[in-house]
Amino acid sequence: MDRMETTTEQRRFRRQPISSAVIVTPNGHGHDTRILDISEGGACVALPSDWVPVAGAPLKILFLADSPTPLMLKARVARVGMDHLGVEFDPVQDDSVRALLEGLGRPL
Fold this sequence. Notes:
This protein has one helix spanning about 95-105, and strands at about 15-25, 30-40, 40-45, 60-65, 70-80, 85-90.
């Protein structure tokens, strides 16, 4: 009897692909990079070449989207990949995350 393996998406929020310029500031020093995808709970960020992140490290993400006022969100590094990192947004700013997603034209 053959067993087929299935992979189940266990994410709480659906990811939305995006390519948007951001600045991540883990320790007050900014690193230019791009958001690759985003959800209400976090984002996948291209790994800046001039920073070596550590899982659990707090950081701020400055979104530079077409807006007169840039938006800054607090997050923490959830995982580090070869060329990207996963960040988890601080839940106390859920309203700001929703506003960002709506501003990016992403329905919730």
